[in-house]
């Protein structure tokens, strides 16, 4: 399994108890979708290594407690990232998208003006941001706000936005 075929699910943060349980912080809005995980991929030395789970139980919001089958030293996995295959993502409603899907989409205004190409979605800041390269090579940061997004066309690979007056002038 290659990293580009997977999505980041969370990070192993610490051991719990003495029976091999690990605490995973899930990076998701829907932690309930992962309470019955049977297997995961853990990034180790740049590779994704599959592990089967003996147990996966939700704990306090976005935390999952897991026990990995037949693994002698689970504490060596603390701090590692967990991934799942992209095909395991639940389907979305019309007009919704996963951040990884819109990479390389064109962003247009309602008037059809090209804002640029989405090269990334930054989700490590207080406000998630579309990182857009404008046609003249400038980096533009557009907040990911439902009110700004008019439509998403997965077939044409476009996102149409309605931006506040003057937002693009900042860049």
In brief, what are we looking at here?
With 171 residues, this protein is mainly β. It folds into two domains: 3-87, RimM (Elongation Factor Tu (Ef-tu), domain 3, Beta Barrel), CATH 2.40.30.60; 99-170, PRC-barrel domain (SH3 type barrels, Roll), CATH 2.30.30.240. The protein has strands spanning 6-16, 21-26, 39-44, 47-59, 63-68, 81-85, 106-109, 114-122, 129-133, 139-143, 149-153, 158-161.
Word description of this protein:
By secondary structure, the protein is mainly β. The chain has 2 domains: 3-87, Elongation Factor Tu (Ef-tu), domain 3; 99-170, PRC-barrel domain (SH3 type barrels). The chain is built from no helices and 12 strands. It has strands spanning 6-16, 21-26, 39-44, 47-59, 63-68, 81-85, 106-109, 114-122, 129-133, 139-143, 149-153, 158-161. A 6-stranded antiparallel beta barrel has the order 1-2-5-4-3-6. The chain is elongated and about 60 Å long. Pfam families: PRC_RimM, RimM. GO terms for molecular function: ribosome binding. Residues 100-167 form the Ribosome maturation factor RimM PRC barrel domain. Its main location: cytoplasm. This is Ribosome maturation factor RimM.
């Amino acid at each position: 399994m290659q990293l580009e075929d997977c999505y980041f699910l969370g990070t192993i943060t610490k051991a719990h108890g003495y029976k091999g349980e690990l605490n995973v912080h899930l990076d998701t809005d829907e932690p309930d979708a992962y309470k019955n995980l049977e297997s995961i991929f853990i990034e180790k030395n740049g590779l994704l290594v599959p592990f089967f789970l003996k147990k996966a139980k939700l704990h306090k919001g976005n935390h999952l407690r897991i026990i990995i089958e037949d693994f002698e030293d689970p504490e060596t996995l603390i701090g590692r990232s967990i991934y799942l295959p992209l095909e395991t993502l639940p389907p979305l409603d019309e007009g919704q998208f996963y951040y990884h899907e819109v990479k390389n989409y064109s962003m247009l205004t309602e008037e059809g003006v090209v804002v640029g190409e989405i090269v990334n979605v930054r989700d490590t800041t207080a406000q998630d941001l579309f990182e857009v390269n404008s046609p003249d090579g400038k980096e533009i940061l557009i907040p990911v706000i439902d009110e700004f997004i008019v439509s998403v066309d997965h077939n044409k690979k476009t996102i149409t936005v309605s931006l506040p007056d003057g937002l693009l002038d900042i860049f």
